[in-house]
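ZP: hey, is the adenosine-5'-diphosphate complex queued? I don't see it on the tracker
AM: it wasn't, my bad. submitting now with these inputs:
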Amino acid sequence: MELSQAALLPEVLDALSDPVILVDGRKVVTFGNAAAMASWPALVKGAPLSFTLRAPDLIDAIDRVLASVAPMIRGTMTERLPVDRLFDFQVVSLSSALSASPRTAPAVVLVFRDLTEAKRLEAMRVDFVANASHELRTPLASLLGFIETLQGPARNDPLAQSRFLGIMREQGRRMARLIDDLLSLSRVEMSEHRRPVDPVDMAVVIRQVADTLRPVAEERQVALEFHLPPEPVLVAGDRDELMRVAENLIENAIKYGHSGGRVELTLTKEALGQGKCGEGHLIVRDFGTGISAEHLPRLTERFYRVDASASRETGGTGLGLAIVKHIVNRHRGRLTIESELGTGSVFHVILPLFLGE
Ligand SMILES: Nc1ncnc2c1ncn2[C@@H]1O[C@H](COP(=O)(O)OP(=O)(O)O)[C@@H](O)[C@H]1O
Ligand SMILES: [Mg+2]
């Protein structure tokens, strides 16, 4: 029993998702688990560890553990090449081996934890808070400025007063829109692990959203064209969230693609063969100025806009496509964007069909 457990040890270590490396008293590698080999493909058994891992703090920690200064030392190390990575490491003495065994027996175990992703998420969070504060502070500063003017120089000027109040109302609305969007983004994010399952007819969703946006389209002289199948297209979803998806995409197509004069709304049902769940495809196509390729991958990031002033002029918050992406993810669907400068843009939303009936 004892023996077979010991024999299984390499397999057990391979099953761990964190890199584990054993080195002997000369700092030569005697073992690396699968995660270690994946992280450092150049790691070779029988070669000095420092050939692959040059982090001075790590080497120093191993020296001190080998010299019995401490039984265990923790630290962090960064790597620049081939990509920036950050690791937490723990160097632990295999004490029985240290005293009695030859210098070539495993003497120290190194356990790593890759913190790169956690650090990236943390940086994104900090960025997000900074962006959100900045977006809120701009209209707030303008509101405070106008209040001071109303209390001071414009105290007895009714004409200026009514003009300033109009601007103030617009700034207040902008703040309210921003807060609404921030709240819906966090709501969707919090429920993203729970997939919505109610039957929702996408054809109805599109018609309803298009009805509410008709005045916006008319104002910009954009014709909405429908290509909807006669039968319902039931997807498994959350009706309100799917309305927001359609609303954001159609509104963007009208606002940013108005020079094309028309927006096409297409809905299709795709069967995917036996045993597979079919898909509903919503396609929103405009014939406006389009988006150049370098912007496409970043379009769904929070607050990312191709033209910030054009977005603000039309009441945009820069959060619409981020909300769309999270809702589509929650529905286990896909969002793809194709665009060409001067030709227009196509937004595809692909959602699994409802199977409950
Ligand atoms: N159909 C489109 N045509 C051209 N640009 C678009 C289109 N849809 C979105 N964009 C660009 O993507 C940016 C982000 O869109 P979105 O997240 O909805 O934010 P917002 O509309 O509030 O600015 C917009 O500011 C705009 O620059
Ligand atoms: Mg938008």
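AM: back. Residues 248, 251-252, 316, 320 surround magnesium ion (ligand 2) (CB under 6 Å).
ZP: great, adding it to the tracker
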